[in-house]
Design brief:
Ctag/Cox11 (Pfam 04442), about 25% helix, five-stranded mixed β-sheet, 2 domains
Length: about 200
């Protein structure tokens, strides 16, 4: 027995299947796009908020001076088989919040050829990231050293006095700044900085 309803059913099923297939395809494409965008988006989020100990980048010294003294320890590491020597020129400093400090890291290329590398950085504990303000750092750009070249690389930073009002910072008297140099291509892949060897 045939009638108008039996003719309409295949068309309805086809339209519904096509709508489901389109929705699933769009969802898959969206998830794929998010997968590719997640690393740069995460880096941008960390840089903006200080999350996971990511220091802030600022243009100038603090206009305010705080009251707290804090100890800042420095750590240097190498990764990716990089044949360099890398160390802070001083292992720690005591710094008042709002006071600008300049510290140097000494780097030597032990190879007989030019090498380019990039430093990945982190600070700890994680709660300090939003208050650790870098004005200048060798980690902002690739660093190229000629064969057997030795250079001193500065970092200019301060601890934001606003940390004195943060309850989570009340018991924190010591922070660390850690760098790991990787060959430039490995650093681009997003290798994390290791924690300090203190």
């Amino acid at each position: 027995m045939s009638g108008p309803d039996t003719v309409k059913w295949p068309g309805r099923w086809f339209r519904r299947d096509r709508a489901v297939a389109t929705a699933v395809s769009l969802a898959v494409l969206g998830m794929l796009g998010l997968a590719f965008a997640s690393v740069p988006l995460y880096r941008m989020f960390c840089a903006a908020t200080g999350y996971e100990g990511t220091p802030q980048v600022v243009d100038a010294a603090s206009a305010l001076k705080g009251k707290r003294m804090m100890r800042v320890r420095f750590d240097a590491n190498l990764g990716g088989g990089l044949a360099w020597d890398f160390a802070p020129e001083q292992s720690q400093i005591d710094l008042r919040t709002g006071q600008t400090a300049t510290v140097f890291f000494k780097v030597t290329n032990r190879t007989a050829h030019k090498v380019t590398a990039h430093a990945v950085y982190n600070v700890g504990p994680g709660s300090i990231g939003g208050y650790f303000d870098k004005i200048s750092c060798f980690c902002f750009t690739d660093q190229t050293l000629d064969a057997h070249e030795t250079v001193e690389m500065p970092v200019v930073f301060y601890l934001d006095p606003a940390l004195e009002q943060d309850e989570s910072m009340k018991g924190v008297d010591e922070v660390w700044l850690s760098y790991t140099f990787y060959p430039a291509k490995a650093a681009d892949a997003g290798q994390p900085a290791s924690g300090p060897r203190l």
